[in-house]
Design a protein that fits this description.
This protein is an alpha/beta fold and about 160 residues long. It has helices at about 10-15, 30-40, 60-65, 70, 80-90, 95-100, 120-130, 150-160; strands at about 20-25, 40-45, 50-55, 110-115, 135-140, 140-145.
Length: about 160
């Protein structure tokens, strides 16, 4: 594997992008629609004070939508028609984002860095936590998100001869 080096390393604050945030108290169906319509891998969840809490991946929304017995035996999914699938989606009605989240003790570590983190520090943390999103925050205020695809782009450009 080739080593990447930077004369003056880029910092997280320089590569962070604006990214949708949802509050724990927001409507779960709205959050799911945001994920679907913008084809996002996940969204950053903040508390009502705007402090980052966790990342809600689309896969967690699917875990909430799909009955446990179907998750345990995916062959049962074949008997679901569109109407039944629509009923699954209706389980989000009247729910909050907080209800979609796993219990705190089962949540993954929040992938968060200070704005001064280097691109390589960001990449290392994302790789360790196996997350496509990295929150860039300073003093509990979210400044943006670094995505895995953006980091890959930067790292691959750095590897060009």
């Amino acid at each position: 594997m080739a080593e990447c080096s930077y004369a003056d390393p880029m910092r997280a604050r320089e590569v962070a992008e604006d990214y949708p945030l949802v509050k724990v108290s927001d409507d779960a169906l709205d959050a799911a629609r945001l994920l679907a319509q913008r084809r996002l891998p996940g969204v950053v969840v903040v508390d009502d004070g705007g402090r980052p809490v966790t990342v809600l991946p689309g896969s967690q929304v699917l875990r909430f939508l799909i009955p446990g017995y179907v998750q345990d035996d995916p062959s049962l999914a074949r008997v679901y028609d569109e109407r039944t699938a629509d009923k699954c989606a209706s389980t989000l009605r009247g729910r909050t984002v907080k209800e979609l989240l796993p219990p705190k003790e089962k949540r993954h570590e929040l992938a968060i860095v200070d704005g001064s983190a280097t691109v390589m520090e960001c990449a290392a943390l994302m790789a360790r936590l196996r997350t496509p999103l990295l929150v860039v925050a300073e003093k509990d205020e979210v400044h943006g998100v670094v995505t895995a695809s953006h980091l890959l782009e930067l790292l691959l450009l750095a590897d060009r001869p």
